[in-house]
Design a protein that fits this description.
The complex is a heterodimer of chains A (about 110) and B (about 120). Chain A has about 110 residues and is an all-beta fold. Chain A has no helices and eleven strands. In chain A, the strands form two sheets. In chain A, strands 2, 4, 5, 6, 9, 10 and 11 form a seven-stranded mixed beta sheet that branches. In chain A, strands 1-3-8-7 form a four-stranded antiparallel beta sheet, with no helix packed on it. In chain A, strand 5 and strand 6 form a beta hairpin. Chain A is globular and about 35 Å long. Chain A starts with a strand and ends with a strand. In chain B, strands 2, 4, 5, 6, 9, 10 and 11 form a seven-stranded mixed beta sheet that branches. In chain B, a hairpin with a 6-residue loop joins strand 4 and strand 5. The chains are: A mainly beta (about 110), B mainly beta (about 120). At the A-B interface, strand 4, strand 5, strand 9 and strand 10 of A face strand 5 and strand 9 of B.
Chain lengths: ~110, ~120
């Protein structure tokens, strides 16, 4: 199975900060990587797919980059509604796998 | 408008078999490239992928759970069913179904999730 390792697992930041979350794959996954945002009690919401394609309706402060084994999700200017947990996910090959999550909290 | 909704028991006893149904609308699982999957999340923990079925009736399972899982579809009813045998308290989780629309392998629509508690 392909393992996805997210770092950091916890992040404390202030409104307006630039935030970067990393997802590393245990083997190359081309660009078959997606990012999700999840708020308490809610289903995950797709932010980015194919490593860097912004899902329709998602604010442009979110961006994704990377290919192969290293990927990043960047929030250019953190907003109050962005405090949540973020997950990466791959489907380069089965089984599908998710990263362990990064919780972004208010400093 | 794409929607997915999970249904099933809220409480199951240890050793019982869990059957969950995902009823969807706004798309057809007979469309080339379309897939529906099950994902779960224990309270306070990360997402865990369980199983996937595609438009061609190919099925894929979590490595660690594959002996306990069966996924199937009824295209005419727009439903995907997941069964999980020999339930244990560690299987307590919110269970989600979600759609993959094509080749890029991302989940673009999710159900609201259903909490399943395993307890005697």
């Amino acid at each position: 199975d392909i393992q996805l390792t997210q770092s950091p697992s916890f992040l404390s930041a202030s409104v307006g900060d630039r935030v970067t979350i990393t997802c590393r794959a245990s083997q190359g996954i081309s660009s078959y990587l997606a990012w999700y945002q999840q708020k308490p009690g809610k289903a995950p919401k797709l932010l980015i797919y194919a490593a860097s394609t912004l899902q329709s309706g998602v604010p442009s402060r979110f961006s994704g980059s990377g290919s192969g084994t290293e990927f990043t999700l960047t929030i250019s200017s953190l907003q109050p509604e962005d405090f949540a947990t973020y997950y990466c996910q791959q489907l380069n090959s089965y089984p599908v796998t998710f990263g362990g999550g990064t919780k972004v909290e208010i400093k | 408008q794409v929607t997915l909704r999970e249904s099933g028991p809220a409480l199951v006893k240890p050793t019982q078999t869990l059957t969950l149904t995902c009823t969807f609308s706004g798309f057809s699982l007979s469309t080339s490239g379309m897939c529906v999957s099950w994902i779960r999340q224990p309270p306070g923990k990360a997402l865990e992928w369980l199983a996937l079925i595609d438009w061609d009736d190919d099925k894929y399972y979590s490595t660690s759970l594959k002996t306990r899982l069966t996924i199937s579809k009824d295209t005419s009813k727009n439903q995907v069913v997941l069964t999980m045998t020999n339930m244990d308290p560690v299987d307590t989780a919110t269970y989600y179904c979600a759609r993959i629309p094509g080749e890029t392998g991302h989940f673009d629509y999710w159900g609201q999730g259903t909490l399943v508690t395993v307890s005697s």
